[in-house]
Amino acid sequence: MFPEQNPDGFFCATCREFHPGLPFSYAADAPDSYVQLKEDERERRAVLGSDQCIIDEKQFFLRGLVELRIIGSTDIFLWGVWASILEKDFDEISEYWETSGREKLIGPYKGRINNALSEYPNTFNLKCTIRIQPVGARPLFYIDEPEHPLAQEQRAGISLHRVQQIASALIHKSPN
Questions:
Q1: How far apart are CA 154 and CA 146, in angstroms?
Q2: Is residue 175 very low, low, confident or very high in pLDDT (cuts 50, 70, 90)?
Q3: For the chain, which residues make up each domain, given as ranges?
Q4: What is the pTM of this model?
């Protein structure tokens, strides 16, 4: 029997071994719409930066965070994901990207998650609200579809046991 909670590590349900350390964040390097392009198409059709992406000068994406409070802890679990946004919102965010106090000047914005998170039912295209943070911090994404399990965990928090389940499932996945 595996202990349910060990913040210094976890017993993996996949390999049945103890792994030191427990990851409290996972992130997508790019929007799924970008990843789905063939490599030569990416070079011709898309521009990918660390926090922004444009495809065909028609699709606009912003990188941000979905924060989940860990129940019984002061720690936060993070999903780093991308959202599609309107061009006018993309342009305004870009204009204020380095502006001190930007979080009080612009937003919030509406978007749609552009990553499928394997540990949830379909997250691709989930509606979200985007709240800009101070310079140097990524925007926060709030899931607007209250019945979705990710939105429920965002509201109610996530157990340490659930964090361990996610780690067990993701640590052994090979990168695409």
A1: 10
A2: low
A3: 25-157
A4: 0.89
